[in-house]
Specification:
globular; four-stranded antiparallel sheet; eight-stranded mixed sheet; 9 helices; 281 residues; alpha/beta
Length: 281
Amino acid sequence: MDEPIPVTRDVDWGTAKLMPDVDRARAWLLTVNGAPQSYVDLDDPTDLEFEYARRIAHVLDTIAEPGRPLDLLHLGGGALTLPRYAAATRPGSRQRVVEADRGLIALVSEYLPVPDGSGIEVRAGDARAALEEAPDASADVIVADVFGGSRVPAHLTSVEYARTAARVLRADGHYAANLADGAPFDFLRSQVATFAAVFEHLCLIAEPSMLRGRRFGNAVLVAAHTELPLAALARRAAADAFPARVEHGAALDRFAAGAVPVGDVRAVASPEPPGGAFSVG
């Protein structure tokens, strides 16, 4: 069998590369403009290499009994890492994926197709527009992993956006977003305040060193109207190869102290990462 070779293609938002993992026969890293977007092992979709993906997977694992099918709406698709994970761990789930980059959708479909009967439906479109078009109470989980380049777009950070997410979620539904920031955390703190204005229960999952401001990095924001599975999340996050902390309650209030909810008019994108923070050579 021929060895897999890297694939480079111009897509709508730049240059995408699929790079094979030399240690695994059917595993690939997707980058866009040099920034890593997804890692997928087609033979084992439960193997998650990116820390933020594992943390969102912890949310998916703990919000309902194991194996129960869920209705998921994914805002941002990449190489479909988390949809593949949910299809493997919760067979029968119905998953809608919205990805703005049509060229990227075509690339992933050609080289990393999802199995027939996976329950994963991918469509091209803007994440906010797709959310606004979604029916009331139609999703158990919304996973937001949308980056324009290396920044979360401003129109996915406002109170109006959070209210729309709440409308689309069922009463016991959960919202999980991959965000990126560094000290002094103006963006991340504003996101906590913004979603706290809409949802009763929140937590933030991130590495302690990142939350102490030692580096720029990812944090997963989880929001719901019902109690979060905090103890289970904390156990799983602490057991990771790169352990994370689950901030909630008074600690999260202290982290976001002084931050105010942001509406559409004042919403801004997440900050540009410092040079080399997420890039791949």
